[in-house]
Each structure stands twice: as C-alpha cells, then as structure tokens.
Amino acid sequence: MAVYAISDIHGCSAEFKELLNAVSFSEYDELYVIGDAVDRGPDPIGVLRMIMDDPRMHFLYGNHDDMFFRRIPDLIREIQTPGYLQMDDDLFRWVHLNGGLTTMDRFLELTLPECYDIYAFLSNRVYYKELQAGGRKFLLCHAGTDEHCRRGVQPAEIPPEELMWSRIGLDDNPWPDRWLVTGHMPTFIYGDEYEGRIIRREESRSLHIDCGCVFGRTMGMVRLDDLQEFYVPSRN
Ligand SMILES: [Mn+2]
C-alpha cells in the first residue's frame, strides 16, 4: 500500500491516466489530488469524474476549483434557461484570464443530474490534509501560506484563500516538523533547472509538485512513503 500526491492536473486526463498506469496504482493505494483539477486543459470534467468515482482518491481544493465552484449555480441556471448567463467581471476573470472556458463549455453540455453530482462533490471543501507516511509527517495543500513567518500557526487557522492562492518561495515552509507539499506554482517558474521536475528541498522540507503539464512540460507524481518521483510527458 502506497500514498501518492499529484497537483494541477488542469484537465489533462490522458496524462493523468497514463501516470496512474505508470505507478501501477492498485486497489490498496491512495492518491491525494492537491487542487486545480479543472481549467486550462482539454478535459476538466473528465478529470473531476475520475477523482469523484474513485474511492482511493482524495481531493483538496485549489483556486481554480474554487472559481469554478462559485459559478456552478449560474451555470445550472444557464442550462435550465439558456441566455441567463451574463458576462460580468468575475465571470470574465475566470473564463478568459484563468482558463475557465473549457470547464464552462464542457459543464454546459452535461445533464442536470451530472451537474448536481459535481456540485455536491465540490461542496465538500477540504483545503489541506495532514498525514504520515514512511516515517515522515506531511502537510498537503494547494498553494501554501503567504506568511512564511507563521511558525506555530496551525493550518486550520490559516484562511482558505491563502491556502489556495499564495505564491510561495522554494523554502517557505512554516512547519519545520513536517514536509509541506504544494502545487499551484509550476516548477519552471522557479528556474530553468527545474523544468518539468518536482522540486524537493531537504533543508526546508518542501516539495513542489506542479510540473507544468498543461503548459507543455510533464505531469509528476510523488510517492510519499519514500519520496520517489514519477513522470509522464505532457501531450500539450
Ligand atoms: Mn493554482
């Protein structure tokens, strides 16, 4: 039995399936999906369905999942009453500036029961997970925390917005007793030497696992039991 973590799948369902095959993901294994299942990529609803339908997978919220979730009631109204949806600033920001267009378009093609399924699934808002594996303690969350001086502050006290939206530095881990595992910032942002690779910082116990699949790099996954890394190339 092994515990894996992945983040920022962003609608890349083909790479996600390939990576699960690559690690021989078995009935005894578990996977934490650390946010941003939707937006930017080709198959956001397919990715959500894979997670929803698989009891071995646990979902933590990312900022893109949050932007989508907030618009679901309006999208359902649009399906019931075509023409209802008006492009306001908030919708524009999600759809055009944050890659929500495919998510919106695919969602509008669903049946109402399918829509309500997704809405119910995303209504369970979980922002972080603490766990132990292979003798290490971990804290998993999508983005981390703005205040890297928040030593001693428990994750439950940190605003969800911060856990979903922060842009942390490579060593911004306020919890010295545990490994902080985040996505959100594709690792190439931190430097060319990290292109398409998971960044593992021993000193600060930080793991940055968004390898930028939707931006044409790779999709990475880490096995928390032994910090082994797995990759498949992006198809974008
Ligand atoms: Mn994100």
Quick structural overview:
This protein is α/β, with parallel strands linked by helices and 236 residues long. Helix content is 31%, strand content 20%. The two termini are 32 Å apart.
Protein topology:
Elements: E1 3-6, H1 13-22, E2 30-34, H2 44-52, E3 57-60, H3 63-80, H4 89-97, H5 101-108, H6 112-123, E4 128-133, E5 136-141, H7 160-165, E6 179-182, E7 199-201, E8 206-208, E9 218-223, E10 228-233
Parallel strand pairs: 1-2, 2-3, 5-6, 6-8
Antiparallel strand pairs: 1-9, 4-5, 7-8, 9-10
The protein binds manganese (II) ion.
Name the hetero compounds present: manganese (II) ion
Q: How many helices does DSSP assign? A: 7
Q: Look at the structure and name the CATH superfamily.
A: Metallo-dependent phosphatases
What is the total domain count? 1
The parts where pLDDT drops under 50 for at least 5 residues are none
Largest sheet: 5 strands, mixed
Class computed from helices, strands and strand pairing: alpha/beta
Rounded to an integer in angstroms, the radius of gyration calculated over CA atoms is 17 Å
CATH architecture label: 4-Layer Sandwich
Mean pLDDT: 96
The ordered H/E elements are EHEHEHHHHEEHEEEEE
CATH topology heading = Purple Acid Phosphatase, chain A, domain 2
CATH class: Alpha Beta
* Helix percentage: 25-40%
Describe this structure in words.
By secondary structure, this protein is an alpha/beta fold. It has a single domain (3-63, 127-233), classed as Metallo-dependent phosphatases (Purple Acid Phosphatase, chain A, domain 2, 4-Layer Sandwich). It has helices at residues 13-22, 44-52, 63-80, 89-97, 101-108, 112-123, 160-165; strands spanning 3-6, 30-34, 57-60, 128-133, 136-141, 179-182, 199-201, 206-208, 218-223, 228-233. The strands form two sheets. A five-stranded mixed sheet has the order 3-2-1-9-10, covered by helices on one side. The chain has a five-stranded mixed sheet with strand order 4-5-6-8-7, with no helix packed on it. Helix 2 (44-52) links the parallel strand 2 (30-34) and strand 3 (57-60). Helix 3 packs parallel to helix 5 (101-108). The longest helix has 18 residues, at 63-80. The radius of gyration is 17 Å and the shape is globular. The mean pLDDT is 96. Bound molecules: manganese (II) ion. Manganese (II) ion binds at residues 36, 62-64, 142, 184.
